[in-house]
Amino acid sequence: MSETFQFKLIATDGKARRGVITMPRGEVRTPAFMPVGTAGTVKAMYLDQVRELGSDIILGNVYHLMLRPGAERVARLGGLHDFALWPHPILTDSGGFQVMSLASLRELDETGVRFRSHIDGSKHELTPERSIEIQGLLDSDIQMQLDECIRLPAERAEIERAMEMSLRWAERSAKAFGNQPGKAMFGIVQGGDLIDLRVRSAERLAAMDLKGYAVGGLAVGEPQDVMLATLDETLPVMPVDKPRYLMGVGTPDDILQSVARGIDMFDCVMPTRAGRHGLAYTRFGKVNLKNARHADDPRPLDEASGCPASRDYSRAYLHHLVRSNEALASMLLTWNNLAYYQSLMSGMRAAIEAGGFDDFAAATKSGWARGDL
Ligand SMILES: Cc1cccc2c(=O)nc(N)[nH]c12
User: Among 188, 245, 249, which residue has the most ligand 1 atoms within 8 Å of its CB, making it the best to mutate?
Assistant: First the structure.
């Protein structure tokens, strides 16, 4: 525990980094995967299970929580940690990204974004200041600036306009956040697929001396090689001594490749959403439990796993649950998927400390390539 927010690098192996973030609510071992807890819950999981899998931090969303149950209500009930019974660190996304992907009738200008709720059509506004206020009401430990992430492909002028406004919104977000020693506000690098704009965004954010930096505007459908090439050009101009968070990423391979380039933190709906759609992530690659070939298979997903969902239940039973659209299918497969993701993160952390990241990555990829025998 630490009264202040601090990031410490423990080891590096090539560009891969092993670190730890310490703050009053606990520590976050990096590279870290943050299960997505959009509406104050990691869907289909008890948060005790999420914790037991090795999750040091979960993610919440301003957009969803401001619409329902409302930020002021969560504050009256003691904040998100007491509301959801998760006493450990929480990072909250600022809402702009979700507005652009979920809300209707959006108006975005210099002041912020006005939109109608996708739930009941009610009118709302998010400004950099209001987003930080909401994250404060939620008592979030790591708060994200309000930013504008635009869809690619886009014209240079449009990418530059959104990146420059996100920089001005970073200034306003930082001013609204002020000085909260045990908490952090992270800036978000934008710039689309234009390297010169990415570098300008990263350099201008670095000059603001924030406590951490995210790379936004990726994981929005671009090919993996475009995402990785963008990281190759952007990471070198991001502060070495601050956490780097790649938003919305990704598959196990995306994460492995991004840790190799120097990313410290990740969030992605992949493991939880896939779990609700019958898809299991394992050391041997993906297993689609909808597929009839599992109907008589008595084997578990992974007999060597420490997770009961992966180790104890037959594929035949999981296939049956998925085909029957039983709630337990989502529960067991989400449990398996988060267990796999967190085992991948802890394996990378140990490998970096031991100076064996490349060997670990090669062995991990060959396991995926072996497939689901
Ligand atoms: C969650 C997420 C995924 C992917 C990209 C982004 C982004 O650019 N900005 C924000 N605030 N969030 C993002």
Answer: 188
